[in-house]
Amino acid sequence: MKKLAAGKDIVLAEKIDSTMVITFNRPDARNAMSAALYTRCIALLAKAYADPSVRCVVLTGAGTCFSGGRDLKERNVNRQSAADYLEHTLFSEEGPAHFYSYLTQYRKPIITAINGPAVAGGCIVAALGDISIASDRAFFALPEINRGIPPPGGVMVFPKLMSRCKGVYLLLTGEQFSAQEAERIGMITRVVPHRKLMTEALAVARNIGGKSPVAVRLLKTAILASQWGDDLRMNIGREAVRAIGDVTRDRIEGIQAFAEHKNPSKSKRRRRTRA
User: Is residue 132 included in any domain, yes or no?
Assistant: First the structure.
């Protein structure tokens, strides 16, 4: 086993045989995805892709959580207009849309080993694994709608990974669902006992690693093209541009409320709706 340098340990990387295990390492912040975390993950994924001895990548989280999603406290510090949010946050090379797009264009297999809750952007990343294996302690949710923040990433990803009706239901309600339910609706590959999670993920990685790397890469390229078509980042952009003008005030209020552990002001929303 070989550990790679990990830039202040915000992300860990460890090579186990022909598999690179990349771990989100902000357990005290529920592995919230900051700009620095996105950037470091992409750098490590690029390094793994360039290494011919790496046949497969496993993404997982440190501690008890896979990821609570985007670091909203970081976003709240940098209060932004709608235009600035689109340009400097959502679509920047340090933003979530770029990270999701990178995952959907990555031509080596990615296994997500979902060790605990995967919420908001963390749910999207968990679901974007080519193979997604979840601990029986994991659960999932896209709760942004409850904070006045329509999730453009969820709009593009969820209806492609399950039936349209179920995807739309989960997006509009923000409802939490179990790992067993995620397996039932086809969002993840399977659920395993928590203690066996990494053993199972590495076993699958070894299986894939034993096959022709050229054949695996060509197969994955074809699958990605048929599943995602246009660059996912562009599709997220279309949805965000449609929505962002109308929800900017609610989005800012929702982010601030989350950072302050409060509920967004429903009375303010009602006044804006009547207006």
Answer: yes
CATH classification at residue 248 = 3.90.226.10
Asked if residue 44 is part of any domain, the answer here is yes
Q: What is the pTM for the complete model shown?
A: 0.79
Which neighbouring-strand residues pair with 191? 134
* CA–CA separation, 250 and 49 (whole Å): 40
d(CA 201, CA 271): 50
Q: Domain containing 86: what range?
A: 2-194+212-274
Q: What is the pLDDT of residues 135-184, one digit of tens each?
A: 999 999 998 888 777 776 777 788 788 888 888 898 889 999 999 999 99
